[in-house]
Amino acid sequence: MSYHLVLAALLLGTSLAFTGCNSKPDTNAHKQEAPAGQPKPAPVAAPPSLRDTLQRLAQQLDTVHRDGCWDEDFARLMTVHHAGAQRLAAVEIAQGKDATLRDLAQHVLNGHGRDNHVLTLALTRQPPKGQEYRPGNTKDPFVRRIAAALAPLRQLPPTPGPLDSDFATLMQVHHQTGVALAQVELAFGKDAELKEAARRIVRDEQAEIKQYQRWLKAQAAGTTR
């Protein structure tokens, strides 16, 4: 599948995810009948913001099914987490102006696609017999580590714009939670391929965080001259 088809699918999926509750019934003051024989124009959904996309990711991660198996549950969570990064990257590619950040966004699409292959394969395997932890037990070490890893998604930093700066800011939050999630797998997981994927995620996303930090620092230095 070509890059343009992948990007189009990501943008379409992201747009559809936010259209369900935005429509409002017409009031009498605004209600107008379309001319006879002409259909009414369909409402145009506004594209999702980067902040909305990350908040939506936090909600999706809350609803991910967990069996109580360390490796499989990590794979499920990371698959959804990666999809959130891909949606953020798709917005940057479609609307961003900075060439460096657009290149980083394309790198996210490519790298996360590779990781998703490993994660998907892990979910096709037979899970271990019995639970390794109880998903509803908030005192369980695995549950507590996962909750702590994802907590920053619920306390996002200010994003006053422009879009490029917001992308660099929010991708840092995304990657920080991704690194923490991968470190939980390294601490608890048993599957060799998943642990290798987790090590790669830690390495790659920590490196990307530094790139976003350098970009934001350079932008701040430029505005103070």
Automatic annotation (TrEMBL):
Region annotated Disordered, chain positions: 26-46
Domain of life: Bacteria
Annotated keywords: Signal
Pfam families noted in UniProt: DUF305
Limits of the DUF305 domain: 71-216
Transmembrane residue ranges: none
Signal peptide positions on this chain: 1-19
PANTHER family tied to this protein: SLL0788 PROTEIN
Protein name: DUF305 domain-containing protein
